C-alpha cells in the first residue's frame, strides 16, 4: 500500500546544521539576559555558547509508475521547511486585508482547487479562470493554465501580488513577517536567514506543495491487485484507453497528465481567452491550455480552464459531441465534428472509471490542513 513517509534522520546534522545563535548557559548578572532569540553578556557576567539548528531531511516516496520528482538543489525537502510552507499556505495575513490565504482558492476537499467557477479576490473582483488543482504538482514542468510559471516557486510569487487575488505587495508581506517573532525563528531554523524575503517564502510554500501527492485511489488499489473494479468501471477503463474514447492521448501515464498544452475544441474563433499564446506570443498557441490531471477529478468541479462544465457528464458530452473547429484545434481531436458516438451506457461507464481516480485519503489527509 502506497504511503507518504518522511525520512526522520537523527543524524540530520550531516545534512544541515547552523551554529550562529548564541544561547546563555550561565549568568552571574540576570540583567544581562536578552530573550529575543539571542543572548548577550555584560562585562563577562554571562557564559554563552551557540545553539545548533538541525533540519531533518524529508524523503519523497515515488508512487509506482511515477518518475522521480526533481527537487531544486537550492530548496531541498525538510520536515521543518514543509511545516513552514504549510503554515504560510494557510496564512491569511499574506493577503492585502488579511482575509485570504492560498488555501482560500485551493480547497483540500476539492483537490486543492476552487469549487467556484472563478475565484473571488479580496476586493470582490473575479478572475476569468478556474483555480488549478494542486495535485502531484511536484511533477509539473509548468504551472497555471497558460504555463507562465515554470517551477512551484515561480508560481507562488503570483497570487500574493495579483490585483484580483490577494492584492498585496511583497514588501508589505516581508515587513509583516519580519516583525513576527515566530516566523523569524522558523525561517532562521529552516533557511538560516536573519531577514525574511519573498524568495524564501515561496521556497517554503513550494516545499509543502510538493508533498501534496495523491496515489491511493481505487484505481491504484486495482493496479496493486488489492480490489476489483466493477464491470461498468472496467468498461470505462477500456473506453478511456482506446480510440473509442480518445482520452489516453492527453491524459497518459499513471499521473493522468502529459504536461503539454492543447486546444481541445472548446471554442471556435475568435477566442475569448488566448491561453498559452498570452505567454508565447505565438498565434499557433491560441486557445491552448495545460492538460489538467484527472486524479481526484470527481472532487475538483467545475471543469476546464474557465469552469464552464459543472459535471463530469457535461465534460464527456463535450467530447462525445465532437467539439468546435478552429485553426489551432489539436490534431488529437480526431473526431471533431463527428463525435465519439458513445451510447448513454458507455458515457456512464466512462464517468464511472473517472471516479475510480478519487483518493479520499488525499482530500482528508490531516497533514495538509491548517
Keywords:
two-stranded antiparallel sheet; 4 strands; single chain; Cytochrome Bc1 Complex, Chain D, domain 2; 370 residues; 6% strand
So, the CATH homologous superfamily of the largest domain?
Answer: Cytochrome c-like domain
CATH level 1 name of the largest domain: Mainly Alpha
Counting helices, strands and paired strands, the structural category is mainly alpha
Tally of extended strands? 4
Q: Name the poorly predicted regions.
A: 1-49
> The biggest beta sheet, please?
2 strands, antiparallel
CATH architecture of the largest domain: Orthogonal Bundle
Report strand %.
Answer: 5-15%
Q: Kindly identify the CATH topology of the largest domain.
A: Cytochrome Bc1 Complex, Chain D, domain 2
Distance between the termini: 26 Å
Query: In which order are the strands of the major sheet placed?
Result: 1-2
Q: Overall 3D geometry?
A: globular
Helix/strand order: EEHHHHHHHHEHEHHH
How many individual domains?
Answer: 3
Alpha carbon gyration radius:
24 Å
Task: Classify the helix fraction into a percent range.
Answer: 25-40%
What quaternary form is this? single chain
